[in-house]
Amino acid sequence: AKRWGENSVQVYTSDEPLPPSERLVLKNHLREALANNQLILQYQPQIDLATKRIVGVEALVRWDHPQYGRIEPGRFIGLAEETGLIVPIGEWVLRTACQQNRAWREAGLPAVKTAVNLSARQLKHAELIERVLAVVADTGIEPACLELEITEGILVDSVETNRIGLQTLRDAGIKISIDDFGTGYSSLSYLAELPVDILKMDRSFVMRLGQDGESTRAHALAESIIHMAHRLQLIVIAEAVETAGQLADLAAMGCDFAQGYYFHRPLGHEQIAELLRQQRE
Ligand code: C2E
Ligand code: CA
Ligand code: CA
Ligand code: CA
């Protein structure tokens, strides 16, 4: 386990829970993180497997702490949820991601979608829908270029209270995706009723692909998810693609899009602009 050094710069990359003392320190600092411009966004490209082009990016938040260095979201999103700070942080993420999407367009770069993660607490917030619509209006992002990622468990839990709201967003042209699909506890019959456009197949399925021989069952499972999603007219994105073998299997199964270290790690907005520029040529 990592230690909380006096003067050292710590970089937290794991998702393991923090010791109570560290949690308390970070919780207090998190209140000031937003005000002091310590949060930044990185963007991970999403690739169309048919054309090999970047069709979207997922916005991922990081916290550049003045003493402790870069802190990964696995370390502080939970704290932000507990304190309710996820609501202003989430709104900052949404607004910044939409502004950036618009800025790429204004620089003459090809249109891409930007996917933004929504947490449970944000979905429970009474004003979520109107705030999302306000951010879209303020920033001038194409609504069809905004995608909201909601994990399967949260989506199923909240769908009865949120169905109308989510449908309002879809009617405005905004896309909704089910994140981490396959890790929730929903019955498959539920899938037909969720107001979504895109299914993100969880990394646990992708992980087991691309290894010769012993992967027959994993292969059958991933292929079934893709076929089922297509029957429901959902686009499928595979997450955490790390090897050429995984990519080859997914492409053969008809998976639409993929993201993962095999293609690109999450990148800064200038690096995304550079990739889009190369793609235009
Ligand atoms: P997620 O939504 O499942 O995001 C994908 C995570 O997988 C990201 O980690 C990404 O860097 C990582 N990843 C991408 N490609 C690969 C790969 O090939 N292999 C492996 N092993 N990992 C890969 P990250 O950025 O640390 O984010 C972790 C989680 O934190 C996200 O999981 C999401 O649940 C949450 N999160 C990140 N940003 C936000 C945000 O702005 N708002 C909210 N509510 N949650 C966020
Ligand atoms: Ca996500
Ligand atoms: Ca995910
Ligand atoms: Ca995840």
Strand arrangement in the largest pleated sheet: 1-2-4-5-6-7-8-9
Structural class: alpha/beta
Instruction: Compute the number of helices.
Output: 11
- Annotation, overall tally of beta strands: 9
The largest sheet is:
8 strands, mixed, barrel
Instruction: Please indicate the percent range of residues in DSSP E strands (runs of 2 or more).
Output: 15-25%
Distance between the termini: 47 Å
Ligands:
ligand C2E, calcium ion
Q: What is the 3D shape?
A: globular
User: Helical proportion?
Assistant: 40-55%
Rounded to an integer in angstroms, the radius of gyration calculated over CA atoms is 19 Å
What is the averaged pLDDT score? 90
> Runs with pLDDT <50, length 5+?
1-9
Order of helices and strands: HEEEHHEHHEHEHEHHEHEH
Characterization of this structure:
This protein has 281 residues and is α/β, with parallel strands linked by helices. It contains eleven helices and nine strands. The protein has an eight-stranded mixed β-barrel with strand order 1-2-4-5-6-7-8-9, surrounded by four helices. Strand 8, helix 10 (244-252) and strand 9 form a beta-alpha-beta unit. Helix 1 (20-33) crosses helix 2 (73-83) and helix 3 (86-106) packs parallel to helix 5. The chain is globular, with a radius of gyration of 19 Å. Mean pLDDT is 90; it is low at 1-9. Residues 23-280 form the EAL domain. It comes from Massilia terrae. This is Diguanylate cyclase.
